Amino acid sequence: MKRRILSCMAAMAITTTGLSGPTASAQQGESEPQDLPVPGMKTLQIGPSPTKPTYVREQVAKSPAKSGRAARAVAGSYWKVYYQGFTPEVQAAFQRAVDIWSRKLTSNAPITVAAVWADLPDKVLAQAGPNELQVNFAGAEKRNTIYPASIANHLQRKQIDGTRPDIKVMLNKNYAPDFHFGADPAPADKVDFTTTVLHELGHGLGSAGFGTVSKGLGRVKTVIGGQSYLTPFDHFTTTGDGGFLTKHATNSVALGNHLQWIVKFDSPQVRAVNGGEPARLYSPRPFEPGSSYTHLDENTYPAGNPNSLMTPSLGRGETIRDPGELTMAMYDSMGW
Ligand SMILES: [Zn+2]
Questions:
Q1: How much distance in Å is there from the Cα of 257 to the middle of ligand 1?
Q2: How high is the pLDDT of residue 104?
Q3: C-alpha 18 to ligand 1 mean position (Å)
Q4: Residues 6 or more apart from 177 whose CB is under 8 A from it?
Q5: How far is ligand 1, taken at its centre, from the CA of residue 128, in Å?
Q6: Average pLDDT of the residues in 231-253
Q7: Ligand 1 centre and the CA of 308: distance in Å?
Q8: pTM of the predicted structure, to 2 decimals
Q9: Nearby residues of 46 by Cβ (< 8 Å), 6 or more positions away
Q10: 41 C-alpha vs ligand 1 centroid, how far in Å?
């Protein structure tokens, strides 16, 4: 079937003209480079449609968490979206996704989003990413780790830079006929807009990493000025036999093979909700830039699966209104 690319810049590298690009800043250490490496564009593709429409409903928390981060914070988050060019119908469908995240994600700081109903290039349905990155700020859980501003603000318990939205999401208005904007599940021939936005915001919230393969050589760390940097996501990725990818030599064949074989996201939080196992990430051979590594595995979490939101493709008639326990556990691991 005809395939279209839904570009969801998982973080940071917004290249569209007419909008300011991401900025990066270091709160401490004057020697920190101001031009931080950024993970590349991630894509969400239109995948095969399920044999019949699927619907993953929003799950309501059974009971307040008794331990961990959730116990320390007030549940939920406050989001402010700055809409540009949206019709009321499209804006309502976008806001529906924001409202889901506001119920699901707890943040110590407001989360701000610039949402643009835009004329994007052909085949691009949407793109999103943080406007700002932070490294080695007060409250950072990991050194030399490039955080999306939304996580950094949460860890600092304040908005570090209130002058810019934390996340920018652009939807291609040229594809309006393909989208289903309603609150009800999408019919078999439509792409659910709210699911799309929910997915895109997920990349802006942290589903982004440096892992990539080029000419068979793999890397997870990005080196600049002699210093290696990771994203929060990169700290938790492992090989099929459980070793952290960060232990492998940068630009090595061995790491390239691992990135195209089995990659998992391993943390105590993930294991706690996944039967003691790490989460399986999408890691086909050959490596698919934009899809591999920063998405959950499509085959392991197919349409209708409670954890299918952050897989690399979305079928028509596939409606997902919950991030899923695995994604929430991954975010918890990364600092949320
Ligand atoms: Zn994606």
A1: 22
A2: 95
A3: 23
A4: none
A5: 9
A6: 95
A7: 11
A8: 0.87
A9: 1, 2, 3, 4, 6, 191, 313, 314, 315, 316
A10: 9
